[in-house]
Amino acid sequence: MARVLVLATRNRKKRAEIEQILGDLPLELQTLDAHPEVAEVEESGQTFEENAALKARAVAAATGCWALADDSGLEVDALNGRPGVYSARYSGEGATDADNRKHLLEALRGVPEERRTARFVAVVALASPDGQLHCMRGEVEGVILEAECGAGGFGYDSLFYVSLQGVSMAKMSTEQKHRISHRGRALAGLRPWLEALA
Q: Tell me: the pLDDT tens digits for 67-117?
């Protein structure tokens, strides 16, 4: 019988991405949709590491299962690292991905290409019900485009150009994105602990 691993999210796109990356492991992946009794965990940390650990520990304790949480976002150098941990709500609470992309483009209006450098950051945390915690960070460097390019992905993918690949994150194949993405790199680093669970 497969070990249950609860993903500390109700985000279907994030779940699909994690399932594709970890699909070869004999784990039964569930999201918080399977645990309606578990309340949303407030992301009160000041760093990606703090938020991922908060969510993983809270969900593991509430469900009695191992839990996997991630906190991820976009750091733009010309904006002193913003939106950072506030990436999902950059243009306000309840913001959509489109709202956030529009807000970012407005914030960078007039900024030349050489100063539009940025990185996607993801920290994944794996927690057990008894308090064990393993964290791993992944990053991918890129440049913020002046207009959206590509219809794939989600979040800021259509504005994030990866120079080494010569394409925006939203134009990559699923396999290509998982191989180089911040979340893919973080999960790859966490893989030995995930394999030990299976």
A: 999 999 999 999 999 999 999 999 998 899 999 999 999 999 999 999 999
Q: From 136, 127, 132, 9, select the one nearest 66 (Cα to Cα).
A: 127
Apex 184 CA angle, 131 and 26, nearest 5 = 60
Query: From CA 178, how far away is CA 110, in angstroms rounded?
Result: 32
Q: What's the CA gap between 135 and 79, in Å, rounded?
A: 27
The residues pairing with 161 across neighbouring beta strands, listed in sequence order, are 143, 168
Residue 78, CB half-sphere, CA atoms under 13 Å: how many?
17
Q: How far apart are CA 71 and CA 110, in angstroms?
A: 30
Give the count of domains, the chain: 1
State in Å, rounded, how far the first CA of the chain is from the last one. Answer: 10
Single out the catalytic residue among 24, 33, 70, 71.
71
Give the pLDDT of residue 1.
57
* Tokens of residue 144, six digits: 């913020």
Residue 122 maps to which CATH number? 3.90.950.10
Say whether 97 is catalytic: no
Q: Is the pLDDT at 164 greater than 90, yes or no?
A: no
**Structural domain of residue 155, as residue ranges?**
3-197
